[in-house]
Amino acid sequence: MKSQRAAKPKSDRPAVLLNPSNPADLQRKVQRVQLAISRRAHELFEARGQEHGHDQEDWFRAESELLCPASVSMSESEGRISVRANVAGFDQTELEVSIEPSRISILGEKKTSGTKAKDGTIGRTSLNPAQILEVVDLATEVMPERAVVELQGGVLKFELPTAAPNNVGTAA
Fold first, then answer.
1. How far apart are alpha carbons 69 and 87 in whole angstroms?
2. pTM of the predicted model, to two decimals?
3. Angle 135-131-64 from CA coordinates, rounded to 5°
4. What is the pLDDT of residues 21-34, one digit of tens each?
């Protein structure tokens, strides 16, 4: 008789810490993805006979063709912001993050055997997009140097200590 040992759920996988990238370096990569989306949106515009008035529709369709959806949730408690992003299907070698005082950026690119375009982006090679791009604006400033970022079971977790409030209105 075969052993019927239960498989470990994905959430039991050990967490992997990620080191945030320099925001300026990641921004250049984000701009390349945004340029690819812009080009695809323009192709859709031209395919419709250059009919104006559908720019948002074209942009959103281009994003859906080129990017995987990644749901993001955020909570704030005293002294900390927690952000969770669903990045299922991407591993730590395929993800890059950056943290700025008022924003976090997530860029994921699947390792594929396809060829890259001259600008470094991967075009649509299949029905499943191979990239994630999420930029999350934060309502409260955080301290990037004290942030902890980990990937566990397809969820990217950010623990972001908030910056100390400025002493506004103190008398000299």
1. 8
2. 0.77
3. 80
4. 999 999 999 999 99
Does a structural domain hold residue 4?
no
CA distances from 92 to 54, 97, 159 (A): 37, 10, 17
For residue 75, the cross-strand partners are 82
**In sequence order, what are the residues at sequence separation of 6 or more whose Cβ sits closer than 8 angstroms to the Cβ of residue 11?**
152, 153
CA neighbor of 134 nearest in space, from 80, 98, 172: 98
Phi, psi of 102 (to 5 degrees): -120, 10
| pLDDT tens digits for range 70-108 | 899 999 998 999 999 999 999 999 999 999 999 999 999
* CATH number of domain containing 46: 2.60.40.790
